[in-house]
């Protein structure tokens, strides 16, 4: 009986710590989803990918956009809290849009440096998930 109480205590503390970290991560994700709007859509009729970024708080000073998998790679820096960029693009080969991830680095006054990753989608498809990470 004397060994059961410490074991139960350790299990309870571990579960509570896990819930705390899980919950605080979801709050950050919700905050980032509310703060930043990102989309990358292939407009087949025009042969371009339109990438848009908006910081709803207007507290982003510098944004770096990079589209990987292109020859040469596309990279551009913007000042301000939003941009829309149209990049000439041919439809992907058999490997799909996954080989062309869209990476955005946003320097936000309150949140610091945030890395945002998404994928291009066709006009008639739903938006791809957006992944955030703090640098």
Report on this model:
- The chain has 1 helix and 9 strands, in the order αβββββββββ.
- The protein has one helix at residues 4-35; strands spanning 36-43, 48-55, 60-67, 74-79, 82-88, 102-108, 112-118, 121-122, 131-134.
- The strands form 2 sheets. Strands 4-3-6-7-9 form a 5-stranded antiparallel β-sheet, with no helix packed on it.
- It has one domain (37-134): SoxY domain (Immunoglobulin-like).
SSE inventory with pairings:
Blueprint: H1 4-35, E1 36-43, E2 48-55, E3 60-67, E4 74-79, E5 82-88, E6 102-108, E7 112-118, E8 121-122, E9 131-134
Parallel strand pairs: 1-8
Antiparallel strand pairs: 1-2, 2-5, 3-4, 3-6, 6-7, 7-9
What is shown here, in short?
With 135 residues, this protein is of the alpha+beta class. The protein has 1 helix and 9 strands, in the order αβββββββββ.
């Amino acid at each position: 009986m004397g060994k059961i109480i410490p074991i139960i205590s350790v299990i309870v503390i571990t579960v509570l710590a896990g819930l705390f970290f899980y919950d605080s991560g979801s709050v950050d994700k919700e905050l980032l989803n509310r703060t930043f709007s990102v989309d990358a859509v292939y407009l087949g009729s025009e042969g371009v990918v339109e990438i848009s970024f908006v910081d709803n708080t207007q507290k982003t000073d510098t944004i770096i956009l990079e589209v990987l998998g292109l020859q040469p790679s596309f990279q551009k820096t913007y000042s301000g809290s939003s941009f829309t960029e149209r990049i000439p693009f041919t439809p992907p080969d058999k490997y799909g849009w996954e080989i062309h991830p869209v990476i955005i680095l946003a320097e936000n006054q309150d949140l610091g440096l945030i890395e945002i990753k998404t994928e291009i989608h066709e006009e008639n498809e739903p938006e791809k998930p957006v992944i955030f990470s703090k640098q």
